[in-house]
Write a structure and sequence with these properties.
Putative btk-associated sh3-domain binding protein sab, SH3BP5, flat, mainly alpha, protein kinase inhibitor activity, 82% helix, coiled coil, 280 residues, 5 helices
Length: 280
């Protein structure tokens, strides 16, 4: 029989690996989704229980806890705006420095006329950069002021509510702590789910890449063999890619059919076999 192109073996292994990965990951994804649902139900149950136990103080305290959340967000946005403004200041300073250097070198070389055009060009460029940086600095400065004001207002509101509903806030704290914890758990689980979904996506990509590569190799082989008499060795089985695929891959994929998720990963691309030509 004809020597098998070594690249075929590699791509078949890639295909098998991808199939196994997809099947494994889809089972994990199902489990992760069901864990999410369990957490969700459990959280709802615990919070209902807690709210029954603690009663009306929860609703009285709610505006405070909501204001607290808003203030946290406002603080983060304010910090981000501060960083952006600092960065704009640095860029502006660097741009001014560049202009100063360019002018200095321009002056010291002005007796050599061939410098004129190049330096003029550079100076113009650097000056435009300074103007851009000034604009950025003004914009980010204004934005920073705005965010700082929002944060200040949010803090003030938190303090007012804290003074007004002090007792309810203290009494309802277990409920809101529990709520915070539940939210964090659910967020974390959601992150896990998204991560698995991305991994499945890249395993599927690896799968179709391997399949496409096999098709390319197959076509190349058929073109090379086009004029040769050993295009199709005699014998019951032609050793083309198609035959390889039918023999090797489904063994790995058979697991796929059992979990419902991965069964469409059988390579149904056996049409390579039809490209073999018998030459007499």
């Amino acid at each position: 029989s004809t020597e098998l192109d070594p690249r075929i073996q590699i791509e078949l292994e890639n295909l098998n690996t991808a199939t196994d990965d997809i099947n494994k990951l889809e089972i994990e994804l199902e489990e992760a989704n069901s864990t999410f649902r369990i957490l969700m139900n459990e959280s709802t149950r615990r919070l209902k229980l807690s709210s029954k136990k603690l009663g009306s103080c929860i609703e009285k305290a709610r505006p405070y806890y909501e204001a607290l959340e808003k203030a946290k967000v406002a603080q983060l946005e304010c910090q981000a705006a501060t960083l952006k403004y600092q960065r704009a200041n640095e860029i502006h300073a660097a741009a001014k420095e560049t202009v100063a250097l360019a002018e200095q070198r321009f002056m010291s070389n002005s007796h050599e006329w061939q410098f004129d055009n190049a330096w003029q060009e550079m100076l113009n460029h650097a000056t435009i950069k300074v103007m851009d940086a000034e604009k950025q600095k003004a914009e980010s400065g204004a934005e920073h002021q705005k965010k700082a004001k929002v944060f200040e207002e949010a803090e003030k509101k938190v303090q007012q509510l804290e003074e007004r509903y002090h007792r309810s806030i203290q009494k309802s704290r277990p409920y809101f702590d529990e709520k915070q914890l539940c939210q964090e758990q659910l967020e974390a689980q959601k992150g896990r789910i998204q991560q698995l979904e991305q991994q499945i996506q890249s395993a599927k990509t690896a799968y179709s890449t391997a399949l496409r590569n096999l098709e390319k190799i197959s076509e190349e082989i058929h073109q090379q063999r086009g004029d040769l008499s050993q295009a199709a060795p005699s014998g019951p089985r032609e050793p083309g890619v198609g035959a390889e695929l039918t023999n090797i891959v489904p063994a790995a994929s058979s697991a796929a059919t059992n979990n419902g998720g991965g069964h469409h990963y059988h390579p149904h691309h056996n049409h390579h076999q039809h490209h073999h030509h018998h030459h007499h």
